[in-house]
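Justification of resources, computational component.

The compute hours requested in this renewal are based largely on the per-chain cost of generating structure records like the one below. Each record pairs the submitted sequence with a full structure-token output. That output is archived, and it is also reused by downstream analysis tasks.
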Amino acid sequence: MVSLPINFLGREFAEAELRIVEPTEDKATIPLHFNPSEYKLKKENTFAEVPIPGLQSPPLQYVRGGARVLTMDVLVDTSDDLSNVREKYVAKIEGLLNQSEKLHAPPIVEFHWAEQVFRGVLQALEINYTLFHSDGKPLRAKLSLTLKEYRPVDVRLKSDKLTSSDVEKRYVVRAGETLSSVSAAIFRDPARWREIAVANGITDPRRIEPGTVLTVPRLEEQRV
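The structure output for this chain reads:
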């Protein structure tokens, strides 16, 4: 069996591959031999339930967003030249789970297929060998890959908008919180608790009950 790129009107279809991008000294390209028939992208958010006695459904407090996860099944096959599929393909992909001496963590890779580029780390790999030579040598394997998105902290801080200047926010107070701690969490400045107190008509900032829904002033209402 020979795998060839499909040619349509003189143009070759893009072949899927994994590229090691960090550490830069170990840059390499791992072809996936056959393009996946499909891949899935998943992203989840985390919310905390605020326990308020007497409510049938507790209010939710947004905690954080989760990293995107890409999953796909890939077929690798060496039945055309009868070489060992484990040595030719599987071992290279399996090596992406190993810790890099330079990063002290597994390498960072990019999945490339046409215009699709996904940067992450190989979180999980399942290997299913399905075809063997008469001597027991594996010739075909189905690989189930799970890649978890990787973005450096400095990139996240630049791209993630943590404030909104044109809308008011709501914040549900949790047990043990004060206006100062709420101000630190929202404004990154505990000294700005007075703006929250004024917006909510609070006269005693040290006494706010868990479950209280606070109005957070718009940015243009905050002092500079």
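The helical segments are 85-94, 153-159, 179-187, 193-200. The mean pLDDT is 83.
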